[in-house]
Specification:
- The protein is built from 8 helices and 10 strands.
- By secondary structure, it is of the alpha/beta class.
- A hairpin with a 2-residue loop joins β9 and β10.
- α5 runs parallel beside α6.
- The structure holds adenosine-5'-diphosphate and magnesium ion.
- The site of adenosine-5'-diphosphate has 12 residues, from β2 and α1.
Length: 252
């Protein structure tokens, strides 16, 4: 099991996870016995070539997809053992998501998008926490705007604020800067980093960018559905060096 240092509390854990899609000629083994811990209050990157299983691992960890074999936990809850209703509740109350394509509702304002998951859950945002999140992501003067009136970077800030607002046990971000220029990407990465440092948020982020990975505490490398290595306190240079030792990781 990689990732376990001393006895730190674990926000999410995959234990010998296998994921097989399709059957016969269409059969694809996306994950081959992946075990990894994601410690609470840390920012972790998952890196690996296209098709190495990064999104599949994240979807299995988040309860968006089922595992074929093995177990997944969020905190003390075994996700793989939950029924549909409990799974829906877990995804709603304990997990946050940020996607490459933002996934905002076009007819709602920024503020309405941010509040939507809490509205659906019948919860009210804590006013002090609302202010903290809005100021962290720098959206104070954009709250009344619709997504189409915002830049890509601002839209991703809205998506991050939406994920942060429910104070989930863990936020999963799949290539959150993949559609942003480097300046907008740096803004998003900075406040993700800040939410980990200052609010103790746990974040797991898929990226293929060594600079994006350098904002995190640790990188887990996947290759062909298996964990191929890990790196603590990454710098862009250290990440590149690992990629060059294992060229199959390079493709992003
Ligand atoms: P990554 O995010 O690292 O690019 P994915 O996790 O998306 O990789 O995919 C891993 C493998 O599983 C790939 O071979 C992909 O084609 C396959 N795969 C992913 N999702 C599905 C699916 N819903 N049905 C069939 N195959 C899938
Ligand atoms: Mg992917």
């Amino acid at each position: 099991m990689i990732g376990t240092r001393a006895l730190e509390p674990v926000a999410a854990r995959a234990d010998q996870v296998w994921k097989v899609y399709g059957e016969d000629e269409a059969r694809v083994v996306a994950l081959r016995g992946v075990s990894a811990d994601f410690v609470r209050g840390r920012f972790t990157a998952i890196m690996g070539p296209s098709g190495s299983g990064k999104s599949t691992l994240m979807h299995c960890l988040a309860g968006l997809d089922t595992v074929t074999r093995g177990t997944v936990r969020i905190g003390d809850t075994e996700v793989s053992g939950l029924g549909d209703r409990a799974l829906t509740r877990l995804r709603r109350d304990r997990v946050g998501f940020v996607f490459q394509q933002f996934n905002l509702l076009p007819t709602l304002s920024a503020a309405e998008n941010i509040r939507l998951p809490l509205d659906i859950a019948g919860r009210k945002p804590d006013p002090a926490w609302w202010d903290t999140v809005i100021d962290t992501v720098g959206l104070r003067d954009r709250l009344g705007h619709r997504p189409a009136q915002l830049s890509g970077g601002q839209q991703q800030r809205v998506a991050c604020a939406r994920a942060l607002m429910g104070r989930p046990d863990v936020i999963f971000a799949d290539e959150p800067t993949g559609n942003l220029d480097s300046h907008a990407g740096a803004g998003v990465l900075s406040f993700l980093r800040q939410s980990v440092r200052e609010q103790g948020q746990t974040i797991v982020m898929v990226t293929h960018d060594p600079v994006a990975a350098s904002y995190t505490d640790r990188v887990v490398f996947l290759a062909d559905g298996e964990v191929s290595g890990e790196l603590y306190d990454p710098t862009p240079e250290k990440v590149l060096a690992v990629m060059q030792r294992a060229p199959q990781v390079l493709a992003g």
